């Protein structure tokens, strides 16, 4: 096949620049999101949680109005969202159960979010209009559906510019690849990337089809979040009020709290019931459990904490849920715990890294002078066992001797004390005193494990 350039040509110019040259594109939402959004959220579970997170997070959506068309408006999360929004006059809330009730895009209020949830079997004409015309009224559309292939391709899938994908089967993944990835990478590479993203439960992959254009058009001298610009859409103060009110109502709503607590046995219920409304500092907010109100989950750092009967599961690892272990995990000044509880708590600290900066195993332990850090966490992390030498054994094939001499445990309240002890032992050894090798080696090992050296 041959191609040839024509002598006569028609110059196609970008006329958009004539209208936008003196008016930089305003970033309506958080920097991670497109200015105009036509989003599909698909997967078996987790969709509503992500949607609500986009509504309440400071880096999420900005809006004056929320429209929801859903057959599942009865679910607690939407009912609770409605109760929250009713207390905030700056944000309007409109809900529809039937497709005939939906407003035409031309009648919708500007700077709005429209959520279409669980409506794949209903009439799609109005939804298609919003996905194709909503951007002209600054209405951002979100389509939530379990199965990607069930979403109409014409005008909805074809117009989507932002996709949030929970775990998919190969059939749906192939549709997504063909329609939104294509020549960017091979299908096998795309599957590999998705599998890596979906290793953890409720994790998801985001495809932002406009990020390259946003980066290319970015103006480093233009700040889209000045107070003046934000007032034209919605003040940050209003959004902060919305987020604060949402969190506060979750905590003080008796029905929601009671519903949440009913799933637990008596021992964990006592601690969780005290955690949610705590204002006295009795509960540990630095390395202890916190309640994630959006996901209705207990968290320990970045790790999920589940309770089965009395047992505690941290990222799926089961621990015997004694009263002492609950004290250590929840309280600022734990009491009534035993050595077995301390051993289990140390294992939990090492698996969650909740005591380290950024919950990162490679980072240092947090500098904290609170009771729990000084008297429990630091001694557990910097504990050094002094080896007991019972006599020399020479020759090949030597074996460790068992003795009745108990192990001696040395506790350190601060890493600096451990370093000072190491300096003292080295100085003593240089002065000719022997017998410190085991303790020196043990301290060095502790410092390595703690990320100090």
TrEMBL record:
PANTHER family listed in its UniProt record: CYCLIN-DEPENDENT KINASE 11A-LIKE, PROTEIN KINASE DOMAIN-CONTAINING PROTEIN
Protein name: Poxvirus A32 protein
Domain DUF8207: 282-381
Lineage of the organism: Eukaryota, Metazoa, Ecdysozoa, Arthropoda, Hexapoda
Pfam family, one: DUF8207
Superkingdom in the source lineage: Eukaryota
Organism: Popillia japonica
């Amino acid at each position: 096949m041959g191609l040839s350039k024509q002598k006569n040509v028609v110059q196609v110019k970008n006329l958009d620049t004539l209208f936008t040259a003196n008016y930089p594109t305003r970033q309506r939402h958080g920097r991670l999101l497109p200015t105009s959004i036509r989003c599909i959220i698909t997967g078996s579970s987790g969709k509503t949680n992500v949607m609500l997170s986009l509504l309440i997070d400071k880096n999420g959506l900005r809006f004056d109005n929320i429209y929801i068309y859903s057959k599942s408006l009865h679910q607690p999360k939407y009912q609770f969202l409605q109760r929250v929004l009713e207390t905030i006059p700056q944000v309007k809330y409109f809900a529809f159960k039937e497709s005939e009730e939906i407003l035409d895009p031309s009648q919708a209020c500007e700077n709005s979010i429209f959520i279409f949830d669980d409506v794949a079997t209903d009439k799609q004409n109005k939804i298609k209009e919003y996905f194709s015309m909503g951007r002209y009224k600054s209405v951002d559309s979100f389509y939530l559906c379990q199965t990607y292939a069930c979403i109409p391709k014409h005008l909805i899938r074809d117009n989507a510019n932002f996709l949030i994908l929970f775990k998919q089967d190969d059939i749906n993944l192939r549709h997504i690849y063909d329609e939104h990835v294509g020549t960017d990478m091979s299908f096998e590479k795309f599957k590999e990337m998705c599998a890596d993203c979906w290793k953890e439960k409720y994790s998801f992959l985001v495809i932002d089809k406009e990020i390259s254009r946003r980066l290319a058009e970015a103006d480093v001298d233009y700040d889209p979040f000045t107070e003046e610009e934000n007032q034209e859409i919605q003040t940050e103060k209003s959004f902060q009020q919305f987020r604060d009110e949402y969190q506060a109502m979750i905590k003080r709503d008796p029905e929601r709290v009671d519903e949440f607590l009913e799933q637990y046995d008596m021992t964990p219920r006592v601690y969780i019931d005290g955690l949610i409304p705590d204002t006295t500092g009795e509960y540990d907010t630095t390395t202890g459990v916190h309640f994630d109100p959006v996901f209705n989950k207990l968290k320990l750092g970045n790790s999920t904490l589940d309770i089965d009967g009395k047992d505690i599961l941290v990222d799926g690892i089961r621990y015997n849920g004694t009263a002492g272990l609950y004290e250590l995990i929840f309280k600022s000044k734990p009491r009534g715990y035993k050595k077995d509880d301390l051993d289990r708590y140390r294992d939990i600290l090492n698996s969650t890294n909740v005591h380290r900066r950024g919950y990162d195993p490679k980072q240092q332990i947090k500098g904290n002078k609170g009771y729990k850090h000084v008297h429990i966490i630091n001694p557990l992390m910097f504990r050094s066992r002094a080896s007991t030498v019972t006599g020399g054994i020479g020759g090949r094939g030597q074996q460790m001797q068992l003795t009745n001499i108990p192990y001696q445990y040395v506790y350190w309240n601060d890493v600096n004390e451990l370093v000072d002890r190491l300096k003292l032992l080295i100085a003593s050894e240089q002065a000719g005193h022997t017998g410190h090798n085991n303790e020196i080696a043990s301290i060095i090992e502790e410092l390595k494990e703690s990320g100090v050296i």
